[in-house]
From TrEMBL:
The keyword 4Fe-4S does not apply. It is found in: Nucleus. This is Putative alanine racemase-domain-containing protein. Its main location: nucleus.
Amino acid sequence: MVQDTGLGQEMFITAYKKRGQQNLTCYRYTEDPITNNIPNELLSERAAMYCVSPPGETDWFKGTLYGSDAPELDDAFHRLTLQDKASNKKYPLPGADHVAAIVKFYDSPDALRVSQLVEVIGVLSHPDSSRDRDIEEQQQSAVDPAVELGSALHSLAASTPIIHAITYTPLEGLSRSAFDKDMLADLPDQAQEIRTHLIDYISTAFKGDKLAAELILLQLLSRVTAKNGGVKIGPLSLNISNFSEGDKTSTHIVASLLSRLVSHQVVLPLTVDFLNQATFMPKSIDENLHSGALQLVDGTSLIVDETGLSEGTLNDQGSVRNLQALTNVIQNQTLSYVFPYSQFDFDTDLINLTLSAGKSMLPSDLSLRLSPSYENGEGLPVLPEETLNLYRMYIDAAKFSEYTIPPDVSEYIQTCFVNERKTAVAQSKTLPSQDDLMRRVNLARLVSLSFGQSELTKESYEHAQRLDSACEGKSAKPASK
């Protein structure tokens, strides 16, 4: 993940001629200094960015990506110690095992942005070797140094590996999937059967509540599909309440099940102490961008656990900044990055699920009060890896499928909306708003995709209406004191 794009540009030597030789020697992908005068035509620029291992990468996803090397990588992550405190502040999950590198891009990386997932193939350089220390001394004494490092890069280079990118690929959409497109091609034909079994499986984490399980499935298929005047179209935020206060077992089971289905997952255990001490927004300090807990890659499942909240006093950091940042991510899919004299909003695309005992203090598109059929006993059922992979492929295939609304269905939706408003007036009820309509249309899109349909049907829209109405009838109640 690109954590910080602000390390600046630096000059480097594209090639040079060794003394006594006629041929030019390629000089890309190195940190070696050149102390003699270099013609301007042999100078070029490269961009340096600070990158970290993707936060919240789930075990199955790492196993799929890295195969038999996954256990060795996990062991290496566990043994890795980042001595530089500045490096520790540049990872969203404090204390989590991770790796970091300064990646130097030679082709124009203008398309890269913070929090973007990128695959890099390049040449690795270890700055802590004696050779690199000698190079640093040479750079300091060089009359015309080949590389001009910015102050932010200087502060990190002493302890952070460097990767010279030979090629790189921003990972977006289906390119983030662990599965090939060919493997996903036949999934829509099996969608209805898979959907039924997957809802049954998800319901085991919600004590048999099939409505909650279906909404969770639809949320897993949601993503930002368009942006209209700053409004993100497509995401679906959920609040599921009626968990017992302080019941870590039930919320842990939910997180454990979802981690078997998604590639990236982060759990935020909201407590008064956590809100007061944590930092949710990235913040630039001394030209060094410190990460925040919400600086995550697109598609990350963000589970906010409110069941641990109790009485206490929130300070300015907890009540104003962190809660506002979390609200903006849930409501607007934007995260503010704080700089000394300014603040900039960057787009996010997170799957936001809030678990609470009573009424949540955070916004959500849909709120549902859990209706348990049984208590969780021995935990989650054990499924074969082949079945779990089928569920994962189904989610990826449905999430990124093409989708259209036929003109006759669009007209039908408008007619339903007009009639609903007329009925509300006649019964002196609250009129359904434009936001209500947009939510139902989005819900209908997710229903269609979950059934493997590429076009919205009247039946799918009516199904979405029933789901929406069911949530209104089972909304959260205030937590008992």
